[in-house]
Every structure is written in C-alpha cells, then in structure tokens.
C-alpha cells in the first residue's frame, strides 16, 4: 500500500503534468519511466486517476485527460 502522503504527492505531480500538457498521451510503461514508478505504484495511481474521472484509458491503452474531446 502506498502511504497517503506519497499518493497525494504523485497524484498532484501527474495531474500537474497533464494540465500543463493537455494533449499528453502516455502508456502505462511510459508513465512508469517518466516518473520512475514501480509497476504496483503506477497501477494504483492510474486506477485512482481513472476512478476520479481525471484520466481515461483509450482502446489503444493510452492514458489521456478524461475531460478532453475523444
């Protein structure tokens, strides 16, 4: 389990990047590499971001902002 402080830190960081670059499209491996995350942490963060409707996963398994046009 990710400590709450770490979870909050990573969520803010990832959201900030997606806000700064609205067209950002990353696969799960790219998210892991970009932020140096292990697989379990990355999966947990992406799950939270999807459940919060901040990100959505496309049919091509790319994570994009959920509030932008499809």
Give a brief rundown of this model.
By secondary structure, the protein is of the alpha+beta class. The protein has helices spanning 4-20, 28-35, 39-51, and strands at 26-27, 55-57, 62-65. It has a 3-stranded antiparallel β-sheet.
* Number of separate helices: 3
| Level-1 CATH class name | Mainly Alpha
The CATH architecture would be Orthogonal Bundle
Distance between the termini: 33 Å
Q: Rg, please?
A: 11 Å
Major sheet characteristics: 3 strands, antiparallel
**Average of per-residue pLDDT values:** 93
CATH topology: Arc Repressor Mutant, subunit A
Number of domains: 1
Provide the low-confidence segments as ranges: none
Report the principal-axis shape.
globular
Q: What's the CATH H-level homologous superfamily?
A: Winged helix-like DNA-binding domain superfamily/Winged helix DNA-binding domain
Write down the secondary-structure element order.
Answer: HEHHEE
The percent range for helix content is: 40-55%
- Beta-strand level of the residues, as a percent range? 5-15%
Per DSSP E runs of 2 or more residues, the count of β-strands stands at 3
Structural class per helix/strand content? alpha+beta
Widest sheet, order of strands = 1-3-2
